[in-house]
Amino acid sequence: MGGLAKGLAVIRAFARDHAALSLSDIARSAGIPAATARRCLLTLEELGYVTRSGRTFLLRPKVLVLGAAYLESMNIEQLTKNHLEELARNTSDSAALCVLDGVEIVYVARTSVRTLLRLEAHIGSRFPAHATSTGRVLLAGVGAERLAHYFKTARFDALTEHTVTDPAKLQSLIEDCRRSGYSVVEDELAYGVIALAVPVFDHQGRVVAALNSSSHSRRTTKSKLVRDRLSMLQQASRQISTDLAIVPWLSLSAQT
User: Fold this and answer.
1) Global pTM exceeds 0.90
2) What are the two backbone dihedrals, phi and then psi, of residue 207, each rounded to the nearest 5 degrees?
3) Distance between CA atoms of residues 19 and 37, nearest Å
4) 3-state DSSP assignment of residue 241
5) pLDDT tens digits along 190-225
6) For residues 104 and 129, what is the distance between their CA atoms, to the nearest angstrom?
7) How many other C-beta atoms can be found within 10 angstroms of the C-beta atom of residue 168?
8) How far apart are CA 116 and CA 238, in angstroms?
9) Of 15, 17, 43, 211, which shows the fewest CB atoms inside 10 Å?
10) What is d(CA 164, CA 189) in angstroms, rounded to the nearest whole number?
């Protein structure tokens, strides 16, 4: 099934900043020979997942069905819709549910009544776990072996001058999060973005997702965000955790 793995690597080469790519760009990003990338692209084009414009290739809308299959199979958006909307209304900001995928967090549900100028996430958005409140909550919920693997494989890039990149300091922050039950991050993912996150649990008490509330640092501070929103987030987390108990396979999908 090596061809399947290479085809998926080709799809993953595309991103917001790399929407149109040449054959050599795709081969370099996917880490495969140009001839192999070309065969993958021809197959993906025939299946309707990729199109070309001159010497560049672009994804077609059909590729959305791959990500939609996960959301639909888990029914996450439907299960969390009302809770996230209520949280967004009560805070006049955004609320989101994220899961951990390797060294990144992925947005699986989101709603907002306000647009952040420097960062606008959407379902499917991926960000480095080390620079996000949801990432630290999710890392605080994994076992020692998986956490050790994370620190061995992750790159702690500085996204702003405030991003924590020192592994020892990051590990300490994750331990603090495990003890306190929440994480708050300011100006680490992007300037102006401040967010508070709490864990969401499955029916066996395992952390399977993280719920966050985001705002702009001009509107609030870390301490005020915790004071004003922590109890709301914890209540919403309990409600979502109860609802997710009817989807026990979410823990397998999110944590294995």
Assistant:
1) no
2) -75, 120
3) 16
4) helix
5) 999 999 999 999 888 889 899 999 998 888 899 999
6) 5
7) 8
8) 27
9) 17
10) 10
